[in-house]
Amino acid sequence: MSRQIISQDGKPVFVVVPIEEWRRIEEALEDRADAAALRAFLDNPGETFPDSVVASILDGVHPLKALREHRGMTQAQLAKACATSPVYVSQIERGERRAGRKLAVKLGKALRIKPAMLENGE
User: Fold this and answer.
1) Are residues 61 and 99 in the same domain?
2) Does the pLDDT value for residue 122 go beyond 60?
3) Predicted TM-score of the model (pTM)
4) How much is the pLDDT for 50?
5) Are residues 39 and 64 in the same domain?
6) Which range of residues forms the domain containing residue 36?
7) Residue 93: which CATH number?
């Protein structure tokens, strides 16, 4: 491997490598990051969701609605589990209202997810 070391005040501060070598280094670093992410997931897998749920969210369906339907719950059932009204749940799903912090925690518990998953990215 050819390289050039650039010094400043007698100390090395930069290394110049050919672009092909740099691309190989980038690829190796990316492979390591992917492997670390896979190990972290395998150590603590958590829950995964079907592609259809993710696709719905990416297509603009509110995460609350997509996850509620995935769990097979009606708005009324979810509202009852969270001590709120079905109208409020409907308004959240339509993007007309936002769930407050306390309600988001209750919704997350009822749907067995982390409350942060309910954020719509607005």
Assistant:
1) yes
2) no
3) 0.66
4) 94
5) no
6) 4-43
7) 1.10.260.40
* Tens-digit pLDDT profile for residues 40-70: 989 988 788 999 999 999 999 999 999 999 9
- Comparing CA positions, the residue from 103, 102, 85, 95 lying closest to residue 65 is 95
**Residues 21 and 80 occupy one common structural domain:** no
Angstrom distance (rounded) from CA 108 to CA 41 = 21
Q: What are phi and psi of 114, to 5 degrees?
A: -80, 135
What's the rounded mean pLDDT across residues 6-13?
95
Rounded distance between C-alpha atoms, residue 78 and residue 106, angstroms: 10
All residues at 6 or more sequence positions from 50 whose CB lies less than 8 Å from its CB, including other chains: 70
Q: Residue 90 CA to chain centroid, in angstroms?
A: 24
DSSP 114: -
